[in-house]
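User: Could you check the structure of this?
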Amino acid sequence: MIRFDNVTKVLSGKPVLNGIDFKIERGETFCIVGASGAGKSVTLKHMVRLMTPDDGSILVGDDEVSSATGEELARIRNRFGYLFQSAALLAWLSVAENVALPLREKHNMTDEEILDCVHKTLAMVGLEADGEKLPSEISGGMRKRAGLARAIVENPEIVLYDEPTSGLDPVTSRTIDRLIGKLREDLGVTSVVVTHDLHSALAIGTRIAMLHQGRVAELATPEAFMESSSEEVQRFLASQYITKEAPWERDLQ
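Assistant: Sure, the predicted structure tokens are below.
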């Protein structure tokens, strides 16, 4: 569904992506992990052309993203929902008004239709009772869920998550993990999750790609990732206190 072929990107004279290759299948939860500066968020931004590659090809379905312009690029982007790291809610709008923004900007819907859609979407993320609150009146985890509601309100095929558990406590992080899994099951979306939290990636991912020095150092299922012979992978596992003797929790029910 999404394919990167030999994608390169140089920023400030430094190679950030150095020949990235992978293919994301429809309906999977594809997690991208790696150390800070490995190129995780840069990779995510390339999928919707918030950044363009210096070389290589990026396909979404049959569409070449890097050369798309105008209506073609808008059509490609409409296939995506995007949860930004900060949730990116407008402080002066209520939670419900934030979620309604994409519907008001891009769809010819009545106010009643918009309100109904927003209410149903907030219910999916457990915020049906919080729609009238301002972002400042809810917790960080709730703001992430509100941002996710806005990302899925248009029923996208693909949802991109940029550090969805960043800044959250472990209990709230696991709540977000369960929600990502639930939305994949209920909506059938393809999920691409950039995360520093390897516990999260191991719990929710169908496959995990680890970036190291601008390349894909490992691409495997969670089980195979744990067994990887790559020194980079084993160092990364050890840095988050994950070992075969102290495994991650796969059951998110």
